[in-house]
Design goal:
By secondary structure, the chain is mainly β. The chain has one domain. It contains two helices and five strands, in the order αββαβββ. It has helices spanning about 1-5, 45-50; strands at about 25-30, 40, 55, 70-75, 75-85. It has a five-stranded mixed sheet with strand order 2-1-5-4-3. A hairpin with a 7-residue loop joins β1 and β2 (about 40). The longest helix has 6 residues, at about 45-50. The chain is globular.
Length: about 90
Amino acid sequence: MDELMRRRVYGADHEDPDPGPRPGHTYRELVGGPLDGLLLDVTGWSETALAEGAALITEIGAYGPGGRAEYGPRRGDLHRWDWQGDTP
């Protein structure tokens, strides 16, 4: 758990002195692709939304600024979301 608490959360400001996870929040680890290793805050997401995954805005994907990286739940591991590709 200590390793998880030192990780950066997707969307945190790069100048934030504490860009890590917050107590009481729920996270998914992003695996692969341009956002590999970041944590996604899914606090309050519905079961449907958690099952569908997310297309996350990123400047460092295949489509540059405004592009999205798609991540979805890993079968058998509810805490990790795998990269599924980039979209414009």
